[in-house]
Specification:
- It is built from nine helices and 18 strands.
- The strands form three sheets. Strands 17-16-15-14-8-13-12-9-18 form a nine-stranded mixed sheet. Strands 1, 2, 3, 4, 5, 6 and 7 form a seven-stranded mixed sheet that branches. The protein has a two-stranded antiparallel sheet with strand order 10-11.
- The termini are far apart.
- Bound molecules: nicotinamide-adenine-dinucleotide.
- The site of nicotinamide-adenine-dinucleotide (NAD) has 21 residues, from helix 1.
């Protein structure tokens, strides 16, 4: 088979997501497996790392055996060998980077949120489309094993008519005040001026999760909160939290499925996973986690009777069955990367575009509008 090398600019990948999910678990993993088979070709991604700090880039490149890195993004963009520009830099920097890459005629792939405000997210989608460039935004949750298992059962009609969804997302993110318990997420996430905040972060995800699994989002009601008002940054200094660390939201859909999502960095976990969605349908229910999915069919549904005077005779964790199959599930980011590469090289359809990504930013913005008004807001 003929090998088709494809030059990819990986921008802002010294960060958490860029390094772990995109460089190591996706691009390098694809190279290690011998590329992506596409028709009679093998697509082989050939990365160059770009960013501001040459020392950090070099360290990352050496550690992972990447040959090329540069702090001169303009020069790299001017090189026609590189066909794809990928961005995982901080959210406020995304649009200026994408604009430069579009002007240089590169196909565009990037992390979510694609912008901080919806008008910019739609504008950049327009720009990429008008320039005739292939484009995509990360929607990784769609390829989580738990969600794939749920979708397979949904397609078989296991749940009957789906009625409602209760999503619980989050965990305790340490404030960093106690030296023995350092914060486990970058501090910018808690500063709105740096693109942080639970709503802009997670409602982007909930938009494509709900749209793809349950029905198109038509209305939102949201209450935002900043429960923890100060944290310690990477330099050890205290800073005021200007972004929301929690969001309590309801979403209506065009299928009638009502979805509630609690998202919080200020909760302690007593549930099956860091994200769980309880899906209740007329014939059965599911608890969808990141990797696992448990179901309870109508025939296994217990018959509780309300009696607080005695301990419950029922263990409500019984009668749930873990969904098992003989499939192997690859890394969700890598699966989407492979599809984007096939889209660029062979025009294989790729519906997870910048325009779809913009819908996530729109939902975040409308969630804030709902919070401000204390009212339901239509999602067009
Ligand atoms: N898909 C997901 O599940 C998911 C999860 C977490 C974060 N993200 C998104 O990924 C992006 C990065 O988040 P992270 O957690 O990796 O943050 P991070 O702080 O670890 O990384 C940010 C990266 O951007 C770089 N950067 C910042 N400003 C830059 C500039 N002006 N020019 C060039 N590079 C610059 C930093 O050096 C760093 O490499 C964010 O947009 C975030 O919303 C997505």
């Amino acid at each position: 088979m003929k090998v088709r090398n494809i030059g990819i600019i990986l921008n802002g990948v010294t960060g958490r997501m860029g390094t772990n999910q995109h460089l190591v678990r996706s691009i390098l993993a694809i190279r290690e497996q011998g590329g992506v088979v596409c028709g009679d070709e093998i697509i082989m991604p050939d990365p160059i790392l770009t960013g501001r700090n040459a020392e950090k880039l070099e360290q990352l490149a050496v550690k992972h055996g990447v040959e090329k890195f540069s702090t001169d993004l303009d020069a790299v963009l001017a090189d026609p060998y590189y066909e794809i520009f990928f961005d995982a830099s901080g959210t406020p920097h995304r649009i200026p980077f994408l604009e430069r890459a579009i002007a240089a005629g590169k196909h565009i792939y990037c992390e979510k949120p694609t912008a901080v405000v919806a008008s910019e997210a739609y504008r950049i989608a327009d720009c990429a489309e008008q320039a005739g460039l292939k484009n995509g935004a990360v929607q990784d949750k769609l390829w989580l094993p738990g969600i794939r298992k749920f979708l397979a059962l949904k397609e078989q009609g296991f749940f009957g008519k789906i009625l409602s969804v209760r999503g619980e997302f989050g965990y305790w993110v340490f404030t960093g005040e106690n030296p023995d318990q350092p914060a486990q997420r970058p501090s910018w996430n808690y500063r709105s001026e740096d693109g942080g905040g639970m709503i802009v972060d997670m409602h982007c995800h909930w938009r494509y999760v709900i749209d793809n699994l349950f029905g198109k989002v038509t209305r939102v009601f949201c209450k935002a909160a900043t429960h923890i008002d100060q944290r310690r940054n990477e330099s050890g200094e205290m800073f005021p939290c200007t972004a929301d660390d929690s969001a309590y939201a309801m979403f209506e859909t065009d299928t009638g499925v009502i979805c509630q999502f609690n998202s919080s960095w200020a909760v302690r976990v007593r549930r099956d996973d860091l994200l769980t969605m309880q899906v209740d349908g007329t014939e059965g229910s599911a608890i969808v986690g990141l990797r696992k999915c448990w179901v309870q069919h109508q025939k296994d549904t217990p018959r509780p009777v309300w009696n607080p005077d005695i301990d419950s005779p029922l263990n409500f964790y019984d009668n749930w069955t873990e969904v098992t199959d003989d499939k192997t599930y690859d890394n969700a980011f890598k699966i989407q990367w492979e599809m984007f590469l096939k889209h660029v090289v062979a025009d294989v359809p790729f519906p997870w575009t910048l325009r779809e990504g913009a819908k996530g930013v729109q939902l975040a913005e409308l969630s804030w509008e709902s919070n401000a008004k204390g009212a339901w807001v239509d999602v067009p």
